[in-house]
């Protein structure tokens, strides 16, 4: 029955990682970690032309590795850096473009709760391998965005950042290191076999709590009520979507829709390149009109037989799917990250979309690498999990 499928949709041990990662992200976002990451990345890349854009992208890479959420990234990093960039002479469209596209790194750089959703939807794909598989594509995405940002910054004549003394740099790095260690603990623990991906989420949550309230101490413990409420709101939305999408997936399977779509795609061509391009086009189109979590739940059972028939590794497919749908989050008409960025920057979606095309090109280039060069995804999992 439908009720049974609704319950089955959220009755999974792997899904326990999601509330812990959401809560860890909320705690560290509220406790000053985003500001410290910005200061730390400014030490690393702030002095180049358009330095604040490079800081924005690198900060998103680090923060995404903690929160695993693009919206959390834009809300915290963007709320600080978009006004800062505008005050420093950067155009509003450029500041928002850099922020929303770089936020997509958090969806593929571990930990990503969307990877966990894919793992469950795909029927037990290793979450640890998915986490490791997303590392190199996430870094490549960041590098591609940094190159595009630098080219535009030089063309528009944006300023360089101020020089930071060695003594000040050491002070900033030592202040940020505890927050950055969250991602190291998660990935290191999974690789070393100390704990599973689900257990790592609980450890990350406890570590975030200790660092925020007993070491950084920027906010009082009484703020925990608000943090828990925000995490609960996010979790309620995610779990409701998962439950309903599982029931929907059951209906699709009952009606043999996956088999029909597999036949339709392979009927166009049995060439692997053509089939992969068609799947990418399908996911990109769907990503512009639907949110990521339900799309993963709906499309994974449909497309997995197609992927298996052409011999693609499920880990590679998972990273490819999440990156596709991440692009959709900053694409109109229903890009959640795009909406948040426009709200912070006080700019219309129509004006912003025109200036986004060079950034879309960079993201699509990385997507093509992920799709057609398996080692981009599989190199690190094969190296570390032999």
Explain how this protein is built.
With 386 residues, this protein is mainly alpha-helical. Helix content is 78%, strand content 0%. It has 20 helices and no strands. It has helices at residues 2-8, 17-30, 33-45, 51-67, 70-87, 92-102, 113-121, 127-133, 135-156, 166-191, 197-216, 224-254, 257-268, 272-287, 292-309, 314-329, 336-345, 349-355, 357-372, 375-384. Helix 3 crosses helix 10. The mean pLDDT is 83.
Output the structural class: mainly alpha
Fraction of residues in β-strands: under 5%
Q: How many individual β-strands?
A: 0
The ordered string of helix (H) and strand (E) elements is HHHHHHHHHHHHHHHHHHHH
Biggest sheet architecture: none
Features of the shown structure:
mainly alpha; 78% helix
Question: How is the secondary structure organized here?
Answer:
Layout: H1 2-8, H2 17-30, H3 33-45, H4 51-67, H5 70-87, H6 92-102, H7 113-121, H8 127-133, H9 135-156, H10 166-191, H11 197-216, H12 224-254, H13 257-268, H14 272-287, H15 292-309, H16 314-329, H17 336-345, H18 349-355, H19 357-372, H20 375-384
Helix pairs in contact: 1-12, 2-11, 2-12, 3-4, 3-10, 4-5, 4-6, 4-9, 4-10, 5-6, 5-17, 6-9, 6-17, 7-15, 8-20, 9-19, 10-11, 12-15, 13-15, 14-15, 14-16, 15-16, 16-19
Short description:
By secondary structure, the protein is mainly α. It has 20 helices and no strands.
